[in-house]
Structure formats: C-alpha cells, structure tokens
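Following the same procedure, backbone shapes were mapped to integers, yielding the entry below.
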Amino acid sequence: MITPNRISSLLRQHIPEFAPRTADGVQVLQGNSFRLLDGALSAFLRWIPKGDHHGETELRYYRTVLSVADLPTPRMKATARTAEGTLAVWQWLEGSDLRQANRLLLPDAFALLGQFHLAHRHSGPVESPITLRGYPTTHQLLDAELGALWSFGDPRARHRCCQILAPLEAGYPSVNHGDVHPGNIILARNRLHFIDWGYAHRGLNLTDLAYLWETRIQGECPGDWWMISGTEASSSLSAYLKASEVKGASESEVIRAVMVWNQLYSHSNAVRNGLEVEADKCKALILELLT
C-alpha cells in the first residue's frame, strides 16, 4: 500500500504546485485515498495503481464527460502518471454526505441526476454492468442480462421476471454514474455534488436508480445505509422521472423493475466473487419480488 511519504514525493516530483511543505501535510483517509492539508493547500488525493479498472474509468470520465460542468462534481485539478500508476488531485469538498444528515435533499439529488441523464442521452450502444458488454437496444440488453443470470430452474419465474423488467425499456441509453447511493452524494457550500465515478458507463439510465427500494412492494429492504427506501425512494423516483423526461412509465412498475434488477446485479456480483450465502439471499429475494 502506498504511503503518505510516497504521495508527498510524487507531488514534489510531478505536481510541485501541490507539494506539501510539512511532513504531515498528506493524511491518510482510507486505502489509497488521502487529504492534502498544508497551509493554504487543500485537496483530495487518490492513488490509482496500474490495472485498477475502476480508477482508470473514473479518470477517463473526468477527462471527457465530467469536464463539462452540467452536474456538480469535485473538480479534478491535476494528474501524474507513473510506471506504477496515476496520482490524481481533486478539489476538496468541505461538507458531508447524505447517509445520515440532509436526507430531505435526496429528491433534489435525483432531479440533478435526471437532468444529467437527459443531457447525455445517446442512441446506443447501451452497456451492461452485469455482462460487461454493449448491446444495440435496451431490450437486447435486458434479455442478455437475464439470460446470463437465470439459473433458478423455473421457466415460469423467468417469464415473470421478463414481464417485471419490461418497464425499464421506457428508459434510454445515457451516461450512468453506476453507484448512486447516499454516501456518494456530498452537500458542500449548499450544493450537492456527485463523487466516486469508478463505475461510470454508457448504460440504461433507469438502472442508475438501483438503490431505490419501495417498502410497499417488499417491506424488507436489503442492505444498510446505501439503500434508499420508503417515502424517500418514492419522492426521489418522482423527481427523477420528471427531470429525466422518461415518458409513459408507471412509477410503481418502474420501481419494482429497478428492485428486481438491483437484486439480479447483486446476485451476479455475489456469484462472481464466490459469495454463496449472499447469492442465495439475492436469489430468494428475487423470487419473492416476482410474486
């Protein structure tokens, strides 16, 4: 794991305008994330090792799509590429995320997300975070995702799943953040910002709502702080659909489809990582949601 001393050395060598003057000017946040705090200098630092797919994805989107300020995000100020990886410097946001405080702002956040999706709507292809492939149409995307995942044995349940996912076809291809939970939305200086774009992709816009959960459909909400449930989910969905101009979609049908898709995605991740217990939980919840 890279150390604060190594980060300081890289800054002095490659980005001297952000080089700390004191030995403790770089502080560890977690893993490969650091804060630069040295006199007037303040920034968020991330070390992205060579081969870090999500880190490289974030850099690519910041250099392209996110360089246009149509969605509030921290500004990327500088990068330094080395043989071992890339050191990136972002604006430091002095604020807090929406995991506990300021939950009433969640609908505002999803309205911003909807405006962003509408601004970056495109004609395809549409990429799947489940199969990691692109497809010409949304229908082909959903069919491929279900085909790749369905190993539950009951063809009637698969047919029912197809029916429930069908409302997602009211959406459109756009640039997806890929991980829109309350911890990735920061309130700073009375403005909401979206952070952590490592899962960004040119996907189906409605699947960016994956953390919304309607308790009137299924009362037991999986997960923890990263899920948005109950009235918060309903109001966030309403705000999103209006801002994104998704037409002809029933809110209750869309959110049920999002809930099922979320569990299919969670199931695929559990299987990919060998988490059998978690995969079984997702499978059981999917079958409950199909009733």
Q: What stands out?
A: The first strand starts at residue 26 and ends at 30. The CA atoms of residues 215 and 230 lie 5 Å apart. Helices lie at 4-14, 53-63, 106-119, 138-149, 155-165, 230-244, 251-272, 276-289.
